[in-house]
TrEMBL record:
Species the sequence originates in: Bacteroides oleiciplenus YIT 12058
Protein name: Uncharacterized protein
Amino acid sequence: MTSLIVLIFSELDHSYHLVNSYPINFVIWLLLL
């Protein structure tokens, strides 16, 4: 389960890193929890 969360977070991090929107990334990650 933890590995899955880390994987999802990594995917989101890569996606939003391109847009350079870490605050948005963090909010979306919290919503997924």
